Amino acid sequence: MSGVLERLIGNKCQGHAKSYFIGLERGRLWAEDCADYFELREWSELDAGEFEDLILPHDETKHFRLIHSETPIEWEAYLKGWIDGVREIRQKY
Asked: Taking the domains of the chain in order of start, what are their residue ranges?
């Protein structure tokens, strides 16, 4: 886990921005370490309207639940950050 992520999780306050930045960092990590080209492309092309029934790939749902058990985070803000993190990494390619 990155240092930024550890500091954010250590903050026990609830907030939209904190949830977004935790998701952003997790999305970056997943995109760099786990995703193949096709997954990276698929996830980076999602529209905001497709978030309702979304299930994160691989073990990312487990990561969300683990983080949520340690600190309060908001699902929608986390998910928006996660997808933005994936998009950020895809732009590098």
From this structure: 14-91
